Amino acid sequence: VGLVLGRPLPIWVTTGVAALLSLVLCWRIAQADLRPRLRPSSRGLVLGVAAAATLTLATYAVFPVAKSLVPELEHELTRLYARLADWPGPLAASPLLVLVVFAEEVAWRGVLVSALERLFQERRAAIVVVAAVLYALPQLGAESWLMLPVALGCGLVWTATRLASGELTAPLLAHLGWDLWVFVIHPLA
Questions:
Q1: pLDDT digits (tens, 9 = 90+) for 146-179
Q2: CA-CA 20 to 30 A from 53: which of 20, 61, 101, 183?
Q3: Distance CA 79, CA 82 (A)
């Protein structure tokens, strides 16, 4: 919803509002399951930082190769970064980015993955793939062919991180670290 409404309105505002609504809904649905998963452990902290660093380094390593194979990639990326430059801009919107990432992790790696764990039991590969696909699909609202494969790849990593740690701290740090680096600190384009 935040991506679709982000066309006429600033993307940071619409995704921030969508994140707040999502948090309220998720908390009402799964508060008992979310509370223990939000308690950080040293293992979760280390895993989250390691996943953020690995995914970020992989992004910067793969980007030049992908750009040479798919020349329109750079244009599409420039178009996406232009949306992020909307008011108030990525640096000023960093607190909103933290809120959006937190809400996404609570919804996708918290509520959804917990439901998939009950559904698929010990079939971790199925949980990772289904959760990543469901996470990627709303990116179609961004009207960018690039967002779907990026969200799918990141969703695979963040869901695997959640399953490996058993908590939300690890995927939250992995997601936040990657987003801050790629969108705010050192954009690819």
A1: 999 999 999 999 999 999 999 999 999 999 999 9
A2: 20
A3: 5
Write down the pTM of the prediction: 0.93
Residue 108: CB partners within 8 Å, gap ≥ 6? Answer: 131, 134, 135, 155, 158, 159
Helix-helix angle 72-84:11-37, to 10 degrees: 90
What does the block give as tokens for 12? 């940071």
d(CA 123, CA 166): 15
Would you state the pLDDT for residue 6? Answer: 54
pLDDT for 1 beyond 80: no
- The set of residues, in sequence order, having a beta carbon less than 8 Å from that of 111 and lying 6+ positions away, is 26, 29, 30, 33, 34
| Those residues with Cβ within 8 angstroms of residue 107's Cβ, 6 or more apart along the chain or in another chain | 22, 26
Question: Which residues fall within 8 angstroms of residue 171, CB to CB, at 6 or more apart?
Answer: 48, 51, 105, 109, 158, 159, 161, 162, 165
pLDDT-derived band at 140, boundaries 50, 70, 90: confident
Residue among 143, 6, 16 nearest 86 (CA): 6
